[in-house]
Description:
By secondary structure, this protein is mainly beta.
Amino acid sequence: MESLRMIVDLAKCVGCFNCLMACKDEHVGNAWLPYTDSQQKHAQNWIEPLRHERGKVPYTDLCYVTRLCRHCDDAPCEKAFPAVVQKRGDGIVLLDAEAAKGKAELVAACPHGMISWNEELRTAQKCTMCAHLLDEGLPEPRCVQACPLRALSIIKCTDAVFAEITENQGLLPLDDGPGKPRVLYKNLYRYTSNFIAGALCFMEDGIEKAAAGAKLRLFAGGVPLKETEADFLGEFKFDGIPRNTGVFRIDCSLSGFKPREIELSVGGESVCLAPLCLERRQN
Ligand code: SF4
Ligand code: SF4
């Protein structure tokens, strides 16, 4: 049987906030009953891209992590409030709009903070996956349709097909939290891991030049992990390094220059190395 999933690609999102605005456009001032009452204009966001920065100048990386209800298969909110939360056959998790009225305690039932309180209507609410539109035959929720870079996508397929897509695209849940989410993330390393960046140079006629094309190999405990090449500015980057993983070594080599080793340790932050100057070999 086919069901719905959403994929959020961190490498494509540029933080335009079109998803948030589209959700507002669809739901503020519009009650799509029996699916949901209208959303508050300012006090709630059912979807939100959160800015995440790594590194420091000159080696920085900025991404946006879009958060919304995960439409969990083993939803903690459903376990806590089975009379209010409905899991549909297509995977969408809905709050019963009538039953959710006056139940502020529903907000705490989502461990991911995705249920919010509508003070104007005194009701608990969350993303509906735009079920009112999908049930009308539209192919996508409003936020997905509004994303100009297709950083959000929705897929309807069997569990077996989605398992293959998950494997092929390296999809991951946002965290290890409970619930078996139906919203999975691509390129999540930009949120969960660190990078090591730096630059290699050499001196020629008193001028500092970029060591473009230098080969760099990253080791941990003597085991080779990754390889890269310095770009035309002599800069290099190893990304996807798990946080707090300890001591690494980088071997640097460039034809005509003495090889160099860099020892470093990776803690909770990305590592930005000072430029390293290579020495010419003596003939
Ligand atoms: S993310 Fe939260 S509100 Fe959404 S289904 Fe999971 S537990 Fe429920
Ligand atoms: S699927 Fe619909 S309700 Fe959910 S965040 Fe997107 S626009 Fe809002």
